[in-house]
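Retro notes, item 3 of 5
We never archived the inputs for the (~{Z})-2-methylbut-2-enedioic acid complex last cycle. Fixing that now. Sequence and ligand:
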Amino acid sequence: SDPALVARARAAKEALGDSVFVLGHHYQRDEVIQFADVTGDSFKLARDAAARPQAPYIVFCGVHFMAESADILTGADQKVILPDLAAGCSMADMATFDQVEDCWDALADAGIADRVVPVTYMNSSADIKGFVGRHGGVVCTSSNAKRALDWAFAQGEQVLFLPDQHLGRNTAVLEMGLSLDDCVVYNPRRPSGGLTREQLQNAKMILWQGHCSVHGRFSKAAVDEVRERVPGVNVLVHPECRHEVVNAADLVGSTEYIIKALDAAEPGSSWAIGTELNLVKRLANAHPDKNVMFLDKAVCFCSTMNRIDLPHLVWALESLVRGEVPNQITVDAETAHYAKVALDQMLALP
Ligand code: CIZ
Ligand code: SF4
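Structure as it came back at the time:
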């Protein structure tokens, strides 16, 4: 990265001292990660921000829904800043509040709204988390999705899983013993999700038709290809990948799981990783004694994560030095209240 920008970022951070806390998601660029006070997945970062009440400014190097979660979990006197407002998440954008309200109406029309417990992945807007909190549901991450679903099925007979169909399906089928036939996909662009009344009534898992535009692109063919090319390779993928990819892999787990698996791996072992490319490159650099490779050449960086680059970080930090608060992310009090109900329910999972 440009040495002049590195020097400016360093100077601005030094001038701000303890008043700024910089969070870096694992999928961020190296040029940004070098200035992060902590790194983590979305949930760990939101909690880390809350654990720093003395820092009035949280610069969140990640995407919009993550900054919202940080705003919900931090104190009222902490301001959360997203260095580029265009850093959204295509998956979170696939479930809008209006679409989810329409879906709930469709479930009511089918006579099942009182039997369905909504569960939303962390990767959703604050509006959706608030909706789920208002309707007795829970938030989950890719590390606790099974526990969240176990809890949900103890509260009701059916689950509406938002917005990532792959995490929902993979967890239900691979970890809970449900079958693919127990799952239906609700398409928000069609009346009643494109499902009949019977389909809605008989499904155990109603999966929202959303996916990650990065993880959803890994293919089964790439798994087969790497196994042929690299004898003994361990294929490790994120549960946001498609079911056939997860089925073909050796190991499946969250970002934090992937990082720990590489730490524990034998020197000389080979690993093909199906997750975001910035993280895979960082893991390859951190483990020169292991053969770490990216699973699929057809997949690349998360384009919205990559919007946060060093120029945007420098701009955000220098604005703070001048006493301006750029790009503050706020969630209105009522939405935040109900979103926190669903987040607290997650924290209370057995
Ligand atoms: O795919 C993502 O964006 C993930 C895994 C985010 C997170 O940290 O929860
Ligand atoms: Fe969203 Fe996928 Fe990017 Fe994560 S990697 S921020 S889920 S588009």
